[in-house]
Specification:
Helix content of chain B: 55-70%
Radius of gyration of chain A: 26 Å
Distance between the termini of chain B: 74 Å
Shape of chain B: globular
Structural class of chain B: mainly alpha
Number of strands of chain A: 12
Number of strands of chain B: 4
Largest sheet of chain B: 2 strands, antiparallel
Strand order of the largest sheet of chain A: 3-2-1-5-8
Number of helices of chain B: 24
Oligomer: heterodimer
Order of helices and strands of chain A: HHHHEEEEEEEEEEHHEEHH
Amino acid sequence: MDLGSTPDRPAGWRRRAAAAVALALPLLGGCRGVQSALDAAGSDARTLERLSWVLFGGGTAIFLLVTMLLLYALFAPPERRHWLGTRRTIVVGGLVFPIVTLTAILTYGLVLLRVTNAAGGGAPLRIEVVGEQYWWRVHYPADGDAPAFTTANEIQVPLGRPVEVAVTSTDVIHSFWIPNFAGKIDMIPGRVNALRFDVDRAGIYRGQCAEFCGDQHALMAFDVVALEPAAFAAWRSAQARPAAAPGVPLLEQGRLLFARGGCGNCHAVRGTEFSGQLGPDLTHVGSRRSIGAGMFPNNAGTLAGWIADTQHLKGGARMPSYGSLSGEELRAIAGYLESLK
Amino acid sequence: MKASPTSENIDYPNAVPRPPGELEELKRIWASPKGFAIVTDVNNTNVGLWYVGTALLFFILAGILALIMRTQLALPESNLVGHDFYNQLFTMHGTVMMFLFAVPAVEAASVYLLPNMQAARDLPFPRLSAYAFWAYFIGGLVFFGSLFWGVAPNTGWYMYPPLTSYQYSPGDNADWWLLGIGFIEISAIAGAIEIIVGVMKTRAVGMSLDRLPVYSWAMLVFAIMIVVGFPAIILGTVLLELERAFHWPFFIAEKGGDPLLWQHLFWFFGHPEVYIIFLPATGMVSMIVPTVARTPLVGYRLVVLALIATGFLSFGLWVHHMFTTGLPKISLSFFSAASTAVAVPSGIQVFAWIATIAAGRVKLTTPALFIIGFLFIFTAGGLTGVMVAVAPFDWQAHDTYFIVAHLHYVLIGGMVFPLFAAFYYWAPVASKCRLSERVGRWVFGLMFAGVNVTFFPMHVTGLIGMPRRVYTYPQGLGWDALNLVSTAGAFMIAAGVGLFLFDLARNFRMASEDNAGNVWGAGTLEWLPNGDYATRSIPTVTSRDPLWDRPGLSDEVEAGRWYLPGAPTGGREALVTSPIDGRPQYVLQIPGPGWAHVLAAVFTAAFFLLLTVKLVMPSVVCAVIAFACVIWWLWETDPGPTRPPVDIGGGIVLPVYVTGPMNHSWWAMIVLMVVSGMTFACLLFSYFFLWLVNPGAWPPPGTTLPSPLWPLLAGALYLAGSGLVAYASGRLRGEDRRRPPRAVPACLGLAVALILAASTADIMAQLRSGLSPEAHAYGAAVYAIASLQAFFVATVAVMGLYTIARWWAGKLDSVRRSTFDNTMLFWHYATAQGLTGLIVSYGFPRALGAG
């Protein structure tokens, strides 16, 4: 909302407008954010944001009209308000007026329904996301020359190209929502739903599960990064590569502990013997922005804490706590994971 | 408010002074039991108040849960309550508010108000409403208690599978919801049957449909909506419990089920539920507004039409709760249109109230303030409702705090504020003193400000990304300050409610004869002088505001000048009137206090609750006792023409017993058949829905269909059974009253055997074909149809045996035959349902080319 810049107007108006803007700015500023439907970063989201403002504007106007009529009916002198106290008021105010305004709103809404979440704008980039209690399995199928790969809890998208996210779930119902990009779409076992959008503003955003999915529904988020196409291609090819072998003894030690702890039974690290499919793919876990499905910033410290204390930090998650590991061992494993850039 | 000039030269039906002892007799007959036996009371004035009080208790309890949640959410990353407790809190808050507060509160208020407003002595089935109350009271308290053991439901009040199925919710939590709430829904249906028959059949003389108070209209629409809508959730509850307990896969995708089936069933009930709560409140508003504005309601007919239209439309928009489930855009468009359309009848009502306010002169009393607050808040909530009806907007708003804001604006605005207006407005009918106007203003101010401070910011919180049902949220997403403000507002609401309780404790004293009286100068019949017997005599009404149009009416009624000033049958009685024009039809002898219905309620509750905690044997014992109590209770009904017709005054002599469509229990049976039919229709919907999600695999490959001889045999047995009952009916009609023919019990007994054989043949055929209910949704659906039918067959068999027992005891003859007629109606219904089930289960897969 670019309300700050106003063209020249008479001074009194400008003073009032400035005051209004000064009052409104913190509020509107507050609407900006990495997880806000009122801070659109793509054309669909912008359409929905415009729709929101139209609906707020219209709703506010109707609300003021009704309340003013009510106050008039209450407090105007009886002879002045007399005209309001008839059946005509009901017919005009309760029948004709709503039918006209609702028809207008509905028509507008139905037009937008057609144009949003719709095909068009060239071959989309396809991403497959599976909701699981309480994290996101993310798969990028092969796209032209670019090979397929799997990651978790993070989605990166290129600017300017339509994106199609196909979603489903393997356990309970979740809902996929990146408010800055588009509306939400439910992830339902046995069904595959699709969401199409495009992104035109680079940046870091956040998505979150919007359908209650059990114990840790509140802590089921993910990072979203929108990149220039070249940067996206670079990220994509890096993600598709197998994990690098640890070059330092401490990291090698971490890899051994990872193996000994049975971590590979649930987690895959491509290019190694670890091929578990139950939990998130960790091939490039060190490159991700956060851990625990958007819970903590990603660094060796938080990784170690997570491994030692998963059930305390996120009780009900499928991963057990490995509290029996020593501090040194935790540092080694965390270091190994951190090195998987 | 104009006095009728002709009020003096009317012929009153009864002469004054009344014979000595008549009033004393009336008082004695209607007196409530003393001491502990008060729990056996059935008088609507007492039961209604207990009922309202219990609903208020649950409002407070659920409100406390909300305060704990708001305290947890006041700050980001707070650790006050853990995820497990929080998930129980929000589930219980929603469930308790919807099922234990909102629906019971409006039913409770009508148990108290409806008979008074229609100048009826009581509701037509006083023991049924007392039963509904006790079942709700006991079941509700135990259900709430599950929170203290940490086993309360924790998967949301909407209970979406697969999260609620055995795989992801193995504990008892979900069963508490399914059995506890399923049971309370049955109590709600019992109340609805009572209300429908009450509105249609027990009114003041001359109270034709166009003179019916708007509140009665609202309750009629409300009750019909319960009858149509609640079966969907009951059926859904049964299917989910079958899946949990016996692994019948209705909602499991890998086995041919579909989680969306639950959502359709739930919201087909769940959306009308919102209007089920809202319409009675608007009925109250339409009663209060004319009084505070001191002028009749403007647009009575339009308001009534709006009520009916809301009821209709509300069943056509459930899918707007499913806009993000990936349905085709064409269905989104349809339900988007239907959802916006429902705003029109609400608009009509709002403008009718504004017009009435403009036509009159409002004094800003506490009820008036709550009405004005209601108009503000409800209008705002209605407008955000239109917003979320626009599907693309809902894709963003759905399941965020925007929806939390919207639903609290409509429910608090649309239901709680009118209810508080009603508390202040009608307290003088039920209490010796009115509530305090001074305190009331503070209650209103705190609640009004509190609601806006709590919920207005949530519109923003939601759109800037905060989802619902999260026990915590990270710092720095811009949600912190808004949440803190919302929490502060929640405590303002709590302060308002607390002050209200203080006012109640200080001023509310239950009263009937010595109530505070018509302090507002209202025009409707609930303000007539009152006693345990309701009004002394039952007036003729000639307008919608009888007390305004006939200022002397109160005195005339009190003096006993109008109809039925005494108790000519020597027991409690109600005047039954014709449904359209309110003509007196007969004097219904209604039962007084008793233990049977109380014990039946206690043991029904015990059955469900023990079943929840898997104490199967004790629960079966309780079921048997409850069943015995119901039989004991019923045994005393259907008294027959115990005495000759009685004179109610004005030369009107009415029978004390009728049968057929004039009889009140005939109406109740028809309503019960609608409930049953809706339940069965929802099951058929489920069957065909599951067929659609399994294209080409219905039945799944490898299924052997039973031979078509089986359904033909079962169908013939059903028809033969119904035919025998119809034959028995003819024999009963033609006979001498004193010697009812032996053919009647013989035919009934044979018919019982035939219908049991029919249902058995149906189930045996499927079992013999090797169909498993656990392997695939197809088998689950087929056995669900057969099982529901078996339940109805068992019920009909019991009714048949009961009817035979009545004959045995000499309580069934050619005149005294209501029991027989009702059994016969239900019998034919069960036959029709059985035949339909056979056609679907056996015929449909063959029609698809299987077999």
